Every structure is written in C-alpha cells, then in structure tokens.
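Need the bound structure for zinc ion, inputs here:
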Amino acid sequence: MPGEATGTRDEPGTGGEDVRETPEAGGGASLRGAGWALAGLGVVIGAVAWFSTPWRTLPAGAPHVAPDPARDFTAEQIARARAFDAALSVPSYLSLALTLLVAGVLVATPAGALLAARLRGPWWVRALCAVAALTAVTELLRWPLGMWYESRLRDYGLSVQTWGSWAGDRLKSAGVETLLTAAMIVVVIALARRFARWWIPAAAGAFALTVAASFVYPVVVEPLFSDFTPMAQGPLRRDLLAMAERDGVPVEDVLVADASRRTTALNAYVSGFGATRRIVVYDTLLKAPPREVELVVAHELGHAKRNDVLYGTLLGALGGAAGVVLLHLVTSAGPVRRRTRVSSLADPRAVGLLMGLMTLGAVLSGPAQNVISRHIEARADAHALDLTRDPATFVAMQKRLAITNISDLSPDVVEYVLYASHPATPERIALARSWALLNRLPAPPGNAGP
Ligand SMILES: [Zn+2]
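Answer from helper R.:
Posting the output first, comments after.
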C-alpha cells in the first residue's frame, strides 16, 4: 500500500532582478576535490550498507516456501486489501507527482530565485522567509491530496481522527520539517559566504545534525504527536521485560503510545539509540492476545539487539554528507546556474534550488533505503522466531496486523520499490514456515476460509 509521499517545496514567484554569473572561489580545484570526496563517501556508504545489511535471513539450506496470500487470507480479505490499495493509489501517486513537479520547477527554473529576490532584510532573514514561503506554498498545494488520502482511511475505518486533530498533526509535521530545513539551509548559506570550500564543513555538519536528530527525535519530536506511558504493571509487562532479559537486550521500560486517538492500526517500533532508545507499542495493539504482543516486541528486540537504528542513522548521516557534496557539484554546474539564475550559494536566492535538490535527493534515495530496510525487517522477524520459537503465533500475529491495517498483500513492482519498507505479509509468513521447517517444528498450516 503506498504511503503518502512526503517532503517538497514550492512554486513560482514573480519579478526580481537578474543574477550575475560569478563562479565561486576555488573553481576547478574545488570541484575536483569535491568529486574525490563524493567518490570516497560513496565507497564508504557502499561498504557500510553492504556489510551491515543482512542479505540472507535464514541459514543456507533453509527450505524455500513460496509466498502465497491465498493460503492464509480469504478471497474477501484479499479483495478488500486490493480495493483499499487502489483507493489510496491515486492520492499517493498524485502527491508524489506534485512533489517531483515542484522540486523540478525549483531546480530547472528561476522561480525560487525570483521569489527570494522579492524579499527584504539581512540575508538570513530572507533565507528563512524563503524557506517558510516555499514550504507554505507546497503544503497548501498538497493539502487537498492529504485530505483525500485521509478520507479514504476513514472510509475503511482506519482513521478515527477529527479533522482538527488531523490538521494539527499535519501542521506540526510541516513545522518540524521547516525548522530542520531552515537550519540546514541557513548553515549552508552562512558557510558558503565564509569559505570557498564551504562544502567540507557543511558535509561534517550534515553528518552531525543527522546523528543528533536521530538521538533526540524520541524525546523531542515524538512527544509532539503522542503521549507515552510506561506499560501498566501486570503479567504482560513482566513477560515482556523477562523476554528482553533472556534476549540479553537491556530494556528498562516498554512504552505505550496513545495511538488509538487517531488510528485503529496496530504497530510497534524502536527509536533512538543509546540513552534515548525506546521500544514503543501502540495502545491499539494491547487488545491482541498477549502471545501475539510478545511476538511483536520480540521483533522490536531484534532491532534493538542488532542496533538497527544506530546503523540506519550512520548510513543516513553518511548519505547526508554525500548529499552536501553532491549539492555543491550540482549547483556549480553551468546549466543549473543559468536556468535557476543562482550564481552562488552565498546568496539567499539559492534557497529554492537547495530545497528542490534536497527533495529530489530524499525521493531518489528512498528505494535504496527500502531495499536495506526490508532485509533488516526480515532479520528482526527471524529474531522473533528464534526468541519465541512459536511460528504459529507469529503467523497469527502477521495475519492480525495485515487484516487490521488492511496491508497490501500483493504489492506491484512500483509500490514495492517506492514504498515497501517491510517485506509483504505473505513473504513474512513464508519466512516463518521456512524457519519452522528448518527447525523441525510443525509449519503453521494455512487456514484461509473456504
Ligand atoms: Zn521492524
């Protein structure tokens, strides 16, 4: 099922002065240096991704089991999932198309420069205003698509949010995104104004900012959207903490998020690392049988045990640094400068171009992130099976998640590449059967209705 595409920017402004062509100091030598730095970062990113991604989930020799939705889901359930997916497709793809269109306009036309040229004040005020204006315009353009998407969720009973709370969440997300984008852009412009080779400190800054953001996210951003309370005392909490201890993963607490205020979907996740690491389960999940909740938490323990958030953050931080170097190379290119009429990143007129490139970078790197994520998720599933040795409950839990969340049971190639951060449910169930055969335990039978 496609998620809603996120992140974009703006739209044309009008008027404004012309911009001179002034190559930045450092010229050719700086570009060669940046080229080498990008190649070096590319090799490091490739190596970290290659060696930290579990390409094989089960040991060689595990019997292959083919994913088959019809084995576990009724024809009615499969049809409902297909209809829901189709209902979300249109607003999702339109939102993605709009995101790409706006980014394309910013990267290939003088729209961003013309808008910024109309602003007055010190350079940093103009830069901040340009970020705010471009974000506001984009958010406005995407707003109706967001409402369309949200209405579909309501039609299918997945969202129980009021429009007021939906709009509040959306504005908060846009606010957080604007603050982060503004911080990055003001820093880039400030460095470009001061140093010919601004991209070196900027790349280091992007690395540091990504690590810091991932660390503080659970304690700064997540509380803006949900309330978290320690799971109530009782047998479930005791069992979960005992399981974590048995697993050798130090967990002080399992937190419950009040997700039922906005959704009926079931979910759990791990975020942060080191002192801010937390395992969170949605309160909606607590209605499931305790054995199934345990399986979900066992999967999350798999992430915690292998430090998936930390490796993900490291890759994201390296990707951010490489992105800055690429930004320097792209914005130095003659055709880009001529088309956007941005002669230097030291000028706040570059804000639109920077935002457009950042959006394109985020969209284009998504499929690579998904490939890595799907393998990491499969490893966490295998961990849950190793820890609980209960493939039958694993399959029951996967079925409950898929039916309640109306998951896409047979995503097409485009959806899989663009949006699938997890293997599809039939693949996850097939993994459990394969694990059971490997461990000489009875493979969970299929039990789709007649
Ligand atoms: Zn996971």
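Comments: Residues 351-388 form the longest helix (38 residues). The pocket of zinc ion is lined by residues 299, 303, 377, 380 (CB under 6 Å).
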